[in-house]
Amino acid sequence: VQLQASGGGLVQAGGSLRISCAASGLAFSRYTMQWFRRAPGKEREYVARIPWMSGNALYADSVKGRFTISRDNAQNTVYLEMNSLRPEDTAVYYCAADNAPYGSTVGRTMNYWGKGTQVTVSS
User: Over the stretch 91-104, which tens digit does the pLDDT of each residue have?
Assistant: First the structure.
């Protein structure tokens, strides 16, 4: 199984960025796809998930209304559209796959992890 995140970069505060995660080697449509992030010196933080059971996206309060998670089961890819970015959104963003129908906010329950993509928001 591989989860390959891409699309990170440097953006100014208030800007937008879309990151992607391409999956292979798993039954993608039967996995809840999730994004986590880890900022420098901080614990890993749940960001968003899109359950395979319902397809209804769920978000951490810190990103609700600014970030949008979506998935393309035909392309085995999950996306995270990030708008109104803030310096505190700076982190390495990781995608993860969970075979639970609705996923979880707890990182240790994920079945697979990608290697992450760096997002840096300048003030």
Answer: 999 999 999 988 88
